[in-house]
């Protein structure tokens, strides 16, 4: 069976991506990052999702002591409204997907996986530059040149199945795949319940609301 590494944050998009990869017949390993984010709730959610899917998971702890993001520095407030289009919000973590995909590429090459799945989305999103198709196209070229697997023409592909979907489309796909959405956590803030006002909460709510509308 073909192997894949799935980057799993415990949120709506990454959880749907995990179930998508399984549905496509991949033998999946989930990679979860503890990178000093505001709370550990999303890490616990990711672990719960992996267990529900019946896939092995690995939690990798990394340190970003220079911070530079509202998700890493509690002195920076998480915005309470959707970011204006064209601007990059303070919740952007510098080079996060470069770091994550690099770790995933190392993992994939070591275990003989031929694909890396990431639930990046460039439609209903916060405007992060490392969630766009052009970023992943460019980084794919880096992997092709910088990995043994790439040089030997056994390239590891970066797959972004949600990149052009709306949040409503992602919700519909997740429902079809029977993703346990009740176990997911998307909120940027810590609490017993999602805050409902951060970018991630608003985009999630928008997706569920639009998915339930009759057309």
Q: Count helical runs.
A: 7
Listing every helix as H and every strand as E from the N terminus to the C terminus, the arrangement reads: EHEHEHEHHEHH
CATH superfamily: HUPs
**What's the pLDDT, averaged over the residues?**
93
How far the N terminus sits from the C terminus, by CA atoms, comes to: 39 Å
Number of strands: 5
Reported for the largest beta sheet, the result is:
5 strands, parallel
Poorly predicted runs of 5 or more residues:
none
Write out the strand line-up for the largest beta sheet, numbering strands in chain order: 3-2-1-4-5
Query: Based on CA inertia axes, which overall geometry fits?
Result: globular
**How many structural domains can be distinguished in the coordinates?**
1
Notes on the structure:
With 215 residues, the protein is an alpha/beta fold. 38% of the residues lie in helices and 11% in strands. A five-stranded parallel sheet has the order 3-2-1-4-5, sandwiched between helices. Strand 1 (3-7), helix 1 (12-23) and strand 2 (27-34) form a beta-alpha-beta unit.
Entry keywords:
5-stranded parallel sheet, alpha/beta, 7 helices, 215 residues, 5 strands, Rossmann fold
